[in-house]
Specification:
Oligomer: single chain
Number of domains: 1
Radius of gyration: 23 Å
Distance between the termini: 38 Å
């Protein structure tokens, strides 16, 4: 089984093992990280913590302590991009898997029809 297969999970018709609550919650983490509101929040935080100090606007030490610095903000944005890319790959893999299953059904039907003609 490839890494993508493992990440995509079992096919829709397979008996899926029961998931724990923790596994279900952790399954939502990439979706939350890649969500548009989270990316907008990080962009605004980046402007507040990085751009404003560069133009000599005072940002409180408490805000920097809570919000982090440019390293935290840029690494968080990188995590969002990676999570979004991973979700896209998994979604594409699931769609591809469905297409292949449909093609297998069509080939089986064609084979049955050709067998019936003989």
């Amino acid at each position: 089984m490839s890494l993508i297969d493992a990440m995509a999970g079992p096919p829709e018709d397979a008996d899926a093992p029961p998931e724990t609550k923790l596994a279900k919650v952790l399954g939502y983490v990439p979706r939350v990280l890649a969500s548009k509101p989270h990316i907008v929040f990080l962009a605004v935080l980046g402007v507040y913590l990085v751009v404003l100090p560069l133009v000599h606007v005072h940002v409180s030490a408490f805000a920097e302590l809570v919000g982090g610095n440019y390293t935290n903000v840029t690494s968080d944005l990188g995590a969002c991009i990676a999570a979004g890319g991973t979700l896209h790959i998994i979604r594409s893999h699931r769609e591809h898997r469905k297409e292949i299953a449909h093609l297998h059904e069509l080939v089986a039907e064609m084979h049955a029809k050709l067998e019936g003609r003989s």
